[in-house]
């Protein structure tokens, strides 16, 4: 039932034209198989996100192992290296459907929505988004391109 509801939700949102399943690179997901990364608003790639406006990221994945979910770590790749982007309310379980615990062979949707903060660097960049376990080790890692204006 959860799979059907998730599928219907994704189809409805994609038909609205304001979201886009973006190309992504798996950067070392050890306990999950990432199926899609969706960004809203995003009518085309690279997604253009505006400082001071709302944006959301949806990561759909199949857990390959059970995980004690912890926090989220988001970084922007700049010419000087990766810079951590502060994430208010970074607890994975608060953004997961179905709810925690993360169980092996289950389909999950992680949704994070927030305002793009003013101190976020401007320009085109690679975002590295990691979901961490309670030991702060990543169990899911994706990278995707955005442009911040």
TrEMBL record:
Annotated MD-2-related lipid-recognition domain ranges read 24-146
Q: Which organism is it from?
A: Opisthorchis felineus
User: Where found?
Assistant: Secreted
Record bears the keyword Methyltransferase: no
SUPFAM superfamilies per UniProt: E set domains
Q: Which GO terms describe its molecular function?
A: sterol binding
Which terms in the GO cellular component ontology are assigned? extracellular region
Q: Which domain of life is it from?
A: Eukaryota
Q: Which family does it belong to?
A: Belongs to the NPC2 family.
SMART domains on file: ML
Q: Which UniProt keywords apply?
A: Secreted, Signal
Q: What name does UniProt use for this protein?
A: MD-2-related lipid-recognition domain-containing protein
| Pfam families listed in its UniProt record | E1_DerP2_DerF2
| Primary residence | secreted
Q: Which InterPro entries match?
A: Ig_E-set, ML_dom, NPC2-like
Q: Quick one: a GO biological-process term for this protein?
A: sterol transport
Question: In the record, which residues are listed under signal peptide?
Answer: 1-21
């Amino acid at each position: 039932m959860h799979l059907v509801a998730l599928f219907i939700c994704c189809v409805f949102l994609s038909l609205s034209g304001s979201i886009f399943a973006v190309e992504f690179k798996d950067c070392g997901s050890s306990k999950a198989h990432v199926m899609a990364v969706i960004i809203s608003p995003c009518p085309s790639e690279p997604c253009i996100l505006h400082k001071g406006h709302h944006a959301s990221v949806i990561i759909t994945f199949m857990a390959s192992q059970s995980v004690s979910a912890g926090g989220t770590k988001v970084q922007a790749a700049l010419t000087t290296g990766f810079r951590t982007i502060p994430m208010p309310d970074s607890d994975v379980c608060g953004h997961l459907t179905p709810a925690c615990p993360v169980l092996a062979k289950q389909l999950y949707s992680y949704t994070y929505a927030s305002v793009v903060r003013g101190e976020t660097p401007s320009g085109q960049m690679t975002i590295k988004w990691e979901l961490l376990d309670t030991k702060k080790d990543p169990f899911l890692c994706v990278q995707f391109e955005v442009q911040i204006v």
